[in-house]
Amino acid sequence: MIILGFESSCDETGVAAVCTERGLLAHALHTQIAMHQEYGGVVPELASRDHIRRVVPLTRQVLQDAGLQMSDIGAVAYTAGPGLAGALLVGASVAQSFAWSRGLPAIGIHHLEGHLLSPMLADPRPEFPFIALLVSGGHSQLMRVDGVGRYELLGETLDDAAGEAFDKSAKLMGLGYPGGPALSRLAGSGDASRFDLPRPMLHSGDLDFSFSGLKTAVLTRVKAAEQNGGLDEQTRADLAAATQAAIVEVLAAKSIRALKQTGLRRLVVAGGVGANQLLRAKLDAALKPLKARAYFPPLELCTDNGAMIAFAAAERVKAGLATLDASAHSFTVKPRWDLADIA
Fold it and tell me: Where is the Gcp-like domain (predicted)?
């Protein structure tokens, strides 16, 4: 079966075609970064309108790139939540309309389940069970994954997620939007040892996260620098490097603790922060003595994309967890949706 997937939860419009037997056939993505830069963050109404403009051309591109006709599609998938309500409604309504017009089933997918399973699009593909570190702009979670739909929450953020810590710290340093990638790039020319920043909950003994205190520490350093002549470029780079090092150390330490507590030897890292090169290197090095391995999605699939939604739908179909009722086309979206609540 070929599944056409739509992602529109925030500021990326993604469309992809995935075959349950052959995997990813084609995907296309449009990011709204340039549009939102003027405002320093995502404007929900503008995001929704841009999804409307982009989704049909992207769908045509995917079908062309995959060499498919509309008649080849066997099911349609879409992000049902969590995310921005208006943005979710664009992808959901387009997907449901497409499915209704072709007499196809439509499958609502949890956005985080898409991220969770996205490393399985890479080669080699991790086998179940594994520990998953979900790190994105709004989520920092550690999950035990025993199979598709079989997820156990081990730990989560109590306040700011890792991605928020990157973005908010970058904003304090005057790096603009999107802050996380800009901070990581700048950190490459900085000295992380210059600033001693806290590692919140590093020794808490549990698997929860907290990054709001780190953000406050960054703010304190920025104000101190401004009172002493301003935040020059090298100071900004050093502070960026120290911030990145603090976040990565906590993420890596908690991930290793999760592996040790469960006895598992496979770690899957997914979400936008999973593209961070320091995090990848730190985990690879730390896991070798444990004879464990980290798995990451391809860099192009770390951010939100349609491929992960179509793939998650394909995996749910193969596991018998998707309802393939072609006559059911009423729908809703869930801006707030706990991963533990998925059916």
Answer: 24-311
